[in-house]
Design brief:
By secondary structure, the protein is α/β, with parallel strands linked by helices. It folds into two domains: 292 residues, Aldolase class I (TIM Barrel), CATH 3.20.20; 54 residues, Alpha-Beta Plaits. It is built from twelve helices and 20 strands. Strands 3-16-15-10-9-8-7-4 form an eight-stranded parallel beta sheet. Strands 5-6-14-11 form a four-stranded antiparallel beta sheet, with no helix packed on it. A two-stranded antiparallel ribbon has the order 1-2. The protein starts with 12 loop residues before the first strand and ends with a strand. Bound molecules: flavin mononucleotide. Flavin mononucleotide (FMN) binds next to β4, β6 and α8.
């Protein structure tokens, strides 16, 4: 894609020997469900490919199985509940056709496999024979992380990535799989969750009990916390996944300790050009802040995430950037902010301000800050 590498920043990353042109990868899901969708992602500027999870049998998927939530237009959607399971395409078709189509992109291709130790060690060597460069395994339905990792390590010699569920004790799982794997992918969807259509009283999804698994912006804070815990616990690359929609989301993951990110929900909601858009935004942000490589950003936040709490002074306001819109006044539960647009007045009462930080997060103009 043009425009991805024009600035000073170098977006190329190498993870467990796999070389990616940029750190934005596909994630296992409907946008990686076959060779053509993976080629489509490549055309949209993705840095590397992760295919939909395959297992020994095809999945029998409930319908409907996806429902976006959040207010209004698609850009304001916060996430998706899904009940999609693993690939509906047989392993034979993946081996005969789909991986070859994806490999024709020239990008590194990681296959996702599930679920038991016996199942993954039966299919992974056949996948690697087709030229696939790495294996990610999902523990979504089983949880025997170390046993699966060991079975894979004994059956293939390409890089192995463990994809972790946010419901697990992620630090313990990372430690348990560390001897067998080359990297960790965090996180899978969060759930089970539920949504009800109040016009019909029925669930939106056609799955058992109407339950689904949550992805998208809503789970990004969970994913970031997991990435930090893993990055602190083991010394292997971490790939962050969960709610990456913009370049700034990805930067947050790099600062948390990730070497790359995977994107699923944003690609469902916005289409295949979202990968290139995110890569371009990463590049622009890095140029603006004079970072030269993803490695320079990786883990920058970790020293600030220490045990214990810090007492911070009230926020400062940049009166030139402030438009007196009053959003901060509205969300100040301590009534410490007074704004009057007509009189061009802005005041923070340092007696009543509790330093909670809410105003900083709601200001659309970055006019408020806490040192
Ligand atoms: C419809 C859908 C299907 C998914 N299928 C898989 C899958 O087959 N295997 C897997 O490991 N993760 C699967 N995921 C999880 C995503 O790969 C990803 O971990 C999760 O959605 C969080 O990333 P996101 O917020 O960018 O979507 C799926 C997610 C969605 C929304």
């Amino acid at each position: 894609m043009r425009g991805l590498q024009q600035g000073m920043a170098d977006l190329k990353v190498e993870i467990a020997g796999l070389k990616f042109r940029n750190p934005v990868l596909t994630a296992a899901g409907p946008t990686s469900r076959n060779g053509m969708t993976l080629l489509n992602a490549a055309a949209g500027g993705v840095g590397g490919l992760v295919a939909k999870t395959v297992s020994v049998t095809r999945a029998d998927v409930p319908k409907p199985n996806m429902s976006a939530f959040g207010s209004g237009r698609v850009e304001s959607k916060r996430g998706i509940l899904n009940a999609e399971l693993w690939s509906e395409i047989s392993i034979e078709q993946w081996l005969e056709k789909e991986y070859a189509i994806a490999l024709s992109s020239g990008l590194p291709l990681i296959a996702s496999v599930g679920y038991t130790p016996d199942e993954v060690s039966a299919i992974a060597p056949r996948i690697v024979e087709k030229g696939v460069h790495g294996i990610e395994f999902s523990t979504h339905y089983v949880g025997e992380h170390a046993e699966i990792a060991k079975a894979l390590r004994e059956s293939v010699d390409v890089p192995i990535f463990a994809k972790i569920s946010p419901k697990a004790d992620v630090a313990s799982v990372a430690k348990a799989v560390e001897p067998f794997i080359d990297g960790i992918v965090a996180i899978n969807t969060y759930g089970p969750c539920l949504r009800i259509d109040i016009e019909t009283g029925k669930p939106f999804l056609g799955s058992e009990y109407g339950e689904g698994w949550m992805s998208g912006s809503a789970i990004k804070p969970i994913a970031l916390r997991c990435v930090v815990e893993i990055a602190r616990t083991i010394n292997k690359p971490v790939i962050g996944v969960g709610g990456v929609t913009t370049g700034k989301d990805a930067i947050e993951f790099f600062m948390a300790g990730a070497s790359a990110v995977e994107v699923c929900t944003a690609a469902i909601l916005e289409g295949n050009t979202v990968y290139g858009k995110i890569a371009k935004e990463i590049n622009e942000w890095m140029d603006m802040h004079e970072y030269k490589s993803i490695e320079d950003l990786r883990g920058l936040a970790l020293p600030h995430l220490a045990k214990g709490v810090s007492l911070r002074p009230p926020p400062k306001v940049d009166l030139d950037a402030c438009t007196r819109c009053g959003l901060c006044e509205k969300s100040c539960v301590y009534h410490a902010i007074t704004v009057n647009k007509a009189e061009d007045f802005f005041e923070i009462n340092s007696e009543t301000c509790e330093g909670c930080g809410m105003c900083v997060s709601v200001c659309p103009y970055n006019a408020l800050s806490i040192e």
